[in-house]
Amino acid sequence: MHRAACARCARLADGLERLEHALEALGEERPEPPPYLAARVKARLRELPRPGRWRRWWGRFPALRPATTLAALVLAFFVGLLAREVHRLNAVLGERGQVVVIEFADPDAREVRLVGDFNDWGRTPGPVDAVRQGDRWVFRLRLEPGRYQYSFVVDGTKWLPDPNAPGIIPDGFGGRNSVLYVGAERAGIRL
Questions:
Q1: Exposed, middle or buried: residue 127 (CB in 10 Å: 0-12, 13-18, 19+)?
Q2: What is the DSSP string of 134-190?
Q3: Taking the model in full, what pTM does it have?
Q4: pLDDT 10s per residue in the chain (191 long)?
């Protein structure tokens, strides 16, 4: 509570409690306060610094504190999501990163998709542009420097690694993923 956090208010509350106990000890007998007391108390109150506007407002609505905290957390969450989307859109629009071209050849494939950790394994759109050129599929994407895993999904069912990739690693599900290094010299990765 505010009283526990503010020493001045705690002293004032303690003084009021002592006054209340003294008045209770008097019982029914109520002495008249001296005539100067009211003016002296009002003058003393005027001398005290006034709490700021925020503290006055906040103190009036103690029930809003959990709701305000929750609203602030929700706002922070959505700002984080917005920042993530802006980052993703920057990559899609080509404002950052390096253009990477990946090719896949399969004369019998009707559809080939490139999926990887750069597009949440096909769950989010972009940053892949695909063009079919005869029996080859050419994928262009813009990626920031780093290490990426990816695979080709052929006809919506077969997951295949890129035979031309600089590395192939287990995917953790019994299959294999291709490894792509973008800007390896800048990322400090040795091929």
A1: buried
A2: TTEEEEEEEE-SEEEEEEEEETTTEEE--TTSSEEEE-SSSSEEEEEEESHHHHT--
A3: 0.48
A4: 566 778 888 888 888 888 787 777 777 777 777 888 888 888 887 887 766 665 555 555 555 567 777 777 888 888 888 888 877 766 655 556 788 899 999 888 888 999 998 888 888 876 677 888 888 999 998 888 889 999 999 998 999 999 888 889 998 888 899 999 887 554 444 43
